[in-house]
């Protein structure tokens, strides 16, 4: 695959369009925030910890450690694009992963190192229920029994709202001797930053290496890093991203490598389904990375890649079924648990349908918004559009009401692939704007994660 700079046609779109899109997004976020404030003032409990779009009250906290993300962000803006363009491909993947980890950790720890494990310490999170799990087989076969809030000993909120694979990840970490909130936080952060190389590998397979190099700095420095440290959704994003990458690389491979990569991709996507029910909406992204190669693959090739990938998914489904857990039954039980909770009933759907999207705009940052306004007819554009469809489907279900800045992390990383279409002269500007937004949120909003 060529690493030559992608051919750009910036004359067909007004140069002001990306800025106009970002301005419109900012107005929309502001309007949603005002509506949220008025609802809260009127007595509506939004369950956003004092916030009106993001979960977290306003409160400025500046410490000596705040200088760390500023330094990392400035360095990334000044040298990130040039390094992404020049590093050997393997070094780019490693370097992007390391840089994403540095950006994520320095952001989260700017108000103190305790902030890394702290989000997982509350009783609603997965580590709280780890000591309850004994036999893995018994855990799987009885998991759904304890999902209802009125069961004898219900799972905590996050555990009950997800398939058992989410809690099982922390249980296995504990049984491997890596116990404690520090290791739990590390699992989430590592999983989240590993989504970066997975997306880059996918962009290279779907389009070319040059576009992947353009996307790299935006993936690394996106504001969504604020919720990578520390939420389990970051782990979900990493697993799902490598599942998609497996299918994408299978589509451009031949012989036995095609089958191996498709199978591995299917296994990871199957594992993702047992981490979060919401990842079913990512299915269109998985299909797109194969279907864009339909002419080169032919009908038989498409069927082969998707078929082998489906086998991988079914193997995971079968393994859980043998253990006693049936996904569909768990899905319905989790939905009932969510709908029966006070935080669901009290949250007005009419507000959160828009508030969810406003939080998403903040998470992906101005570069992604400007990039979506810069999309051109190219198969890579389908990746971002497929992720947007998944987000809209999730939003339309009405089950997600708030906290989408973390819940939709597995989708945001694909929306950011649109940054490959940003006008070359504007890229550094939008990269800097995203860095500034991330630091501003970290300093002024007391986010839960």
What does this structure look like?
This protein has one domain. The protein has a two-stranded antiparallel sheet. By secondary structure, the chain is mainly alpha-helical. The N terminus is likely disordered. The two termini are 39 Å apart. It is built from 20 helices and two strands.
Number of strands: 2
Cα-atom Rg, whole angstroms?
21 Å
Oligomer: single chain
Shape: globular
Order of helices and strands: HEHHHHHHHHHHHHHHHHHHHE
Distance between the termini: 39 Å
**Reading side by side through the largest sheet, how are the strands ordered?**
1-2
Largest sheet: 2 strands, antiparallel
Q: What amount of the residues lies in strands?
A: under 5%
Tell me the number of helical segments per DSSP (H or I, 4 or more residues long). 20
Secondary-structure content class? mainly alpha
Arithmetic mean pLDDT: 95
What are the segments in which pLDDT stays under 50 over at least 5 consecutive residues? 1-7
Structurally, how many domains make up the residues? 1
**Residues in helices, as a percent range:** 55-70%
